Amino acid sequence: MFYDDLFCSLTNSFYPKNSSNNSPTSTLTELTETETTNEKELLGDISTRLWFTYRKGFSQINGSGPDSDQGWGCMIRCGQMLLAETFIRLYLGRDFKWDSENTGNPFYWKILAYFKDEKLAPYSIQQIAMMGVGEGIQIGKWFGPNAIAQVLNKLTTFEESNHLRFYIAMDNSIFIDEIYELMKTCNKCIKCKQHKKGICEDWSPLLLIIPLRLGLNEFNQDYTEPLKKCLETKYSVGMIGGKPNQAYYFYGYLDDDLLYMDPHECQPYVPNFVEEMNDSSYHTNIMWKLKFSQLDPSIALGFVCKYEEDFLDLIDILQKNIVKKGDLHSLFEIANKRPDFDNISACDSIDFQSDDEFVLI
């Protein structure tokens, strides 16, 4: 059987194009013998990803708030999954595979502990919900893709144990000079012990997040192919989005289906969080699928660049394959620097001697 047409973000595994399984989900128990080897590889890759879902029974948020995020925390959990995938790529590498019988890697446990449902964990539901108040989101209210990106960025500035930098490309635009300026400046919220006068000399790992709205009330399917190309890049850590009123974390696609992880199962809070505990509730081997046509137009793409060379390579890939001048369906723009609109006058911007027709409206 020939295997092709699947490009999972950060995945080199393949799924059969003409598989007889047309159900919305696939699990290892549904495989035929001829499909088992390749399916095992793919589903093993899925089960390695950290799966964050609704939880119940954790300490009340802000002392008197909810003790469960069921019904409102799905986008928060999707943001956690995208960030966790970023840390796995940076600190464990793409070849890392989770094994329920052997999870002794200390970096794995450190990453998982970042997201435990306890107030002091850097990216816990409690920390995110409280930081969301500063973004105008009341505790217990739903986050959008841009809001969760902004909150995770702010929380990262307080986390001294990693030197991750966020760049959130607002207005559908990436400005390269701003990213280099970001890399030069040490974290303002913590005392940097490595660099003098707050000036960094080395590249820090970069998480590039691009919030987009690809349509007004529904997804514009003209953006399907560019979106697929984004998920194909080796620097992709997926995207967050969903369908109306339901958030998902997407990590790849198969033909006309997006592949995602679903945070909507409500599981009990895990107390006494320690290394070598049973961590099976943070993993799944289910492959959920969603048609591109069903996608909500509000999404946020994620790319990780561990080194400066990775960033330059990513920009080159995006400019050659995705962001093309004159293409009406480019997902976003890339420029060397932000235009200085304050120094552009109306007379400078319009040539009244031009033969070109123009209309004032």
Automatic annotation (TrEMBL):
Keywords: Autophagy, Cytoplasm, Hydrolase, Protease, Protein transport, Thiol protease, Transport. Pfam families: Peptidase_C54. Its EC number is 3.4.22.-. Residues 40-315 form the Peptidase C54 catalytic domain. It is an enzyme of class 3 (hydrolase). It is found in: Cytoplasm. Belongs to the peptidase C54 family. This is Cysteine protease. The lineage of its organism: Eukaryota, Metazoa, Spiralia, Gnathifera, Rotifera.
